[in-house]
């Protein structure tokens, strides 16, 4: 039986500092990060087999590439992603709720709702 190589994955610490999501946010501003990079910042860490960027990318792909898609997902559905446990899903849910409240406040101030 041939020996299989383990799949190589890229850790945040393996990236050049300027390529790391947190550093990119500081240098270029949050508006210039991808959805995956923003989510990776919230998630903070990956797993033994997956970097946080890979986990964030998987979640975004499963959500149609948008935070709106992610907001429509059930917490238990998000937790099916390897590496996502209660603390990470709570962080995601809290961030999405903050975004909902900001949107609602803006709509109220504009008299739309």
How is this structure best described in words?
By secondary structure, the chain is an all-alpha fold. The protein has one domain. Helix content is 54%, strand content 0%. The protein is built from 6 helices and no strands. Helix 2 (35-43) packs across helix 3 (52-62). The longest helix has 24 residues, at 86-109. It is globular, with a radius of gyration of 17 Å. The chain starts with 20 loop residues before the first helix and ends with a helix. The model is unreliable at 1-7 (pLDDT under 50).
Can you summarize this structure?
The chain has helices at residues 21-28, 35-43, 52-62, 67-71, 75-78, 86-109. The protein has 113 residues and is an all-alpha fold. The longest helix has 24 residues, at 86-109.
What percent of residues adopt helix (DSSP H or I)? Answer: 40-55%
| Cα separation of the termini | 65 Å
User: Which structural class do you get from the secondary structure elements?
Assistant: mainly alpha
Envelope shape? globular
Largest sheet: none
Low-confidence stretches: 1-7
Give the total of domains.
1
Q: Strand portion, in percent?
A: under 5%
**Rg on CA atoms, Å:** 17 Å
The total beta strand count reads 0
Number of helices: 6
